[in-house]
Write a structure and sequence with these properties.
The chain folds into two domains: about 150 residues, Rossmann fold (3-Layer(aba) Sandwich); about 60 residues. It is built from ten helices and eight strands. The longest helix has 14 residues. The two termini are about 15 Å apart. The relative contact order is 0.17.
């Protein structure tokens, strides 16, 4: 039986863990789908010729290693509020929460005393946008989560060991005080485990892999199971 007594916080992935493409959506954009939104916004909201909008976007993509979405919004001359509402309207057609239990499970976990953090290869404003699509926040904030650990903020990616070292330093937790939640064994288990994080919950909603769980790698089918694992020990 896993002993989660030392765990005080969860580092939770967002893409395909909290928000996903709708199963009915066939023409899926790639994970940088906001670039498609930016291009449309530059033309439809900013009144730019398509070539000029594309050139401004490309200049930032190639000229800045750790950009924010705000860099593109400013470069395209867009109203921030209009852009984020525009992005929500477009992406809500093909992105959705991964499950109906998210808000309730997160609230139970937080009310039990755990701190919740988001981990992502997206900058923080993109994380807030995804949380809005999941019904868990807004571009102006997210009450459930203490901090957003975006790639731009940490200047590293989740598939790098340094990301997890910086994440722990950023939130002032020792490795044994956190557990990771995600959908990728590589990004959400192997790399965090390599820096001493003892537990990872891997969410797979299409296949029940709980029989393959180990002392450190715990497969679950939804967030209610994560809440059950943690709260049963309290």
């Amino acid at each position: 039986m896993n002993n989660f007594a030392s765990v005080k916080a969860l580092l939770v992935d967002i893409d395909d863990t909290i928000v996903r493409f709708k199963p009915s959506w066939k023409a899926q954009p790639n994970t940088g789908s906001l670039f498609h939104v930016l291009q449309r916004a530059g033309v439809e909201l900013g009144g730019l010729p398509a070539e000029e909008a594309a050139a401004r976007i490309e200049k930032i993509k190639t000229g800045m290693t750790w950009w924010h979405w705000s860099d593109y919004i400013v470069a395209l001359g867009l109203s921030p509020k209009r852009f984020w509402d525009f992005a929500y309207e477009i992406e809500s057609h093909y992105l959705e929460p991964t499950g109906p239990e998210l808000a309730g499970a997160f609230e139970r976990i937080r009310n039990a005393g755990y701190l919740l953090y988001i981990t992502s290869n997206n900058p923080s404003s993109g994380i807030l946008h995804k949380l809005r699509l999941a019904g868990l926040g807004h571009v102006k904030g997210c009450p459930l989560f203490t901090q957003l650990l975006g790639a731009t903020e940490l200047q590293s990616m989740k598939w790098e060991q340094i990301y997890w070292k910086k994440a722990l330093a950023h939130i002032a937790h020792d490795a044994d005080e956190v557990a990771v939640v995600g959908d990728s064994v590589r990004d959400d288990y192997e790399f965090p485990h390599s820096v001493g994080i003892p537990f990872s919950f891997i969410v797979n909603r299409t296949e029940d892999l709980t029989a393959k769980s180990t002392d450190s790698l715990i497969y679950v089918t939804d967030f209610n199971q994560i809440a059950k694992h943690l709260l049963n020990g309290r």
